[in-house]
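Hi R.,

As promised on Friday, here is the backbone we talked about, encoded as structure tokens. Could you run it through your design pipeline when you get a chance and send me back a sequence?
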């Protein structure tokens, strides 16, 4: 079901400062910046590699407010690794398959994600404390 790691999501208090950190330290560049009101984030995608199956990204996430997933995460744990996003070929089929396991989807249907992707989250409590995201990238 999982094709590759699509992105790692990193929670930060200040998006511009986080971007500068990755540009300066690693020479990464920003491919896109978006605001996603449904998810409560301002985010940037920085491309890390171009694996055979498709690119891989660092996703930097600044909360749009305190009462959002990333805002609550930072208040509780501070900045740091927030989630892992795996690429899937068919997110509807992946969600149906997950439905047959004990792992609870946080989304019953796909949501709008970065770069035109369709995304759905799985509960961290069912996956060893790791918030996990399924990503069906936009057709290229
Ligand atoms: C919270 N918890 C986490 C966590 N966030 N554990 C691991 N990784 C995380 N990122 C734990 C937290 O430590 C608590 O555990 C428990 O969950 C409840 O915490 P809470 O602060 O009360 O939070 P909740 O229950 O209100 O919400 C937690 C969940 C929520 C995971 C359900 O954050 C959620 O629905 N996330 C999915 C949406 C999301 O994260 N969007 C932002 C990224 P203890 O202490 O009780 O054990 S948007 C994105 O990636 C996009 C757009 C994209 O890729 O394109
Ligand atoms: Co993500």
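Update: got your reply. Pasting your designed sequence below so it's all in one thread:
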């Amino acid at each position: 079901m999982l094709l590759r790691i699509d992105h790692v999501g990193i929670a930060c208090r200040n998006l511009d400062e986080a971007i500068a950190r990755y540009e300066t330290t690693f020479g990464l560049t920003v491919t896109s910046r978006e605001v996603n009101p449904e998810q409560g984030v301002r985010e940037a995608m920085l491309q890390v590699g171009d694996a055979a199956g498709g690119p891989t990204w660092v996703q930097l996430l600044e909360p749009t407010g305190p009462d959002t997933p990333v805002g609550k995460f930072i208040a509780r744990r501070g900045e740091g690794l927030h989630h892992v996003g795996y690429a899937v070929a068919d997110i509807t089929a992946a969600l149906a398959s997950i439905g047959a396991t004990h792992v609870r989807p946080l989304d019953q249907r796909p949501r709008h994600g970065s770069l035109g992707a369709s995304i759905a989250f799985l509960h961290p409590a069912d996956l060893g404390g790791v918030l996990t995201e399924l990503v069906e990238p936009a057709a290229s």
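One thing I noticed while checking it: The chain has one domain: 2-136.

Thanks again,
M.
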